[in-house]
Specification:
Elements lengths: L3 H11 L4 H7 L4 H9 L6 H10 L4 H6 L10 E11 L6 E5 L5 E4 H6 L7 E5 L14 E5 L10 E6 L2 E10 L2 E5 L11 E2 H4 L2 E10 L3
Helix pairs in contact: 2-3
Length: 209
């Protein structure tokens, strides 16, 4: 049976976050996160929204395990992700821009097989993915899809920058490929050495003509 404790742990692990990283996002101590996950305590109502935001979900899902049902004619406000540096620690983490949310029909996301709670938008900088994804385009990302499928397009955090590339896994590392340089892949990089954080798989792209 799914509980709030298990949902917090499952979402944290799915996002590839350590207890310390989740604690910093909320913010609380890592010991508090540990107590949430082992069932000793649970987030208080005033703290639940911050925990949900840090895990890219809703407080309703954490509390009861189900999101509000959305009708086909209803719209979902998709969160926009950026990068922020934490003061004093030198650590980088993803942050939301409340002013840059985009509205999408709920039935569109369901047809794409993506949960509204796990959908975020990311801005693309650079021409490496043209013509598939132009410079300045906005992409939608499924945060639940973090397992690499060779050749698929992913958004990921690396070296304090959000990047969008095709990823290929192999030999304990990965290779990134640009769309307009398929024959010239970047050198293979080790997951541990590169400190890569997979945000999710890209499933939609939009841009101005």
């Amino acid at each position: 049976m799914s509980t709030i404790h298990k949902r917090i742990k499952d979402l944290r692990e799915k996002l590839g976050l350590s207890m310390e990283q989740l604690a910093e996002r909320v913010p609380v101590s890592w010991q508090t996160v540990q107590q949430w996950e082992n069932g000793k305590t649970a987030p208080k109502r005033a703290r639940l929204e911050a925990v949900a935001k840090a895990l890219n979900t809703t407080s309703e899902y954490l509390a009861v395990g189900a999101a509000k049902h959305l009708g086909a004619d209803e719209f979902v406000a998709v969160r926009h992700l950026g990068v922020r540096l934490s003061a004093g620690h030198g650590k980088t983490f993803l942050s939301e821009d409340e002013k840059s949310r985009l509205l999408f029909r709920a039935d569109f996301l369901r047809t794409a097989g993506v949960s509204p709670e796990q959908t975020v938008s990311v801005s693309v900088k650079g021409a490496g993915m043209e013509p598939l994804i132009p410079d300045g385009a906005t992409v939608l990302v499924n945060r639940a899809a973090t397992s690499i499928i060779n050749g698929q397009v992913y958004a990921f955090l690396q070296n304090d920058e959000v990047r969008v590339k095709r990823l290929h896994r192999g030999n304990g590392g990965f290779i990134t490929r640009s769309e307009n340089g398929v024959g010239k892949p970047d050198p293979r990089q080790d997951f541990e050495d590169s400190k890569i954080e997979i945000i999710g798989r890209v499933f939609w792209v939009g841009f101005r003509l």
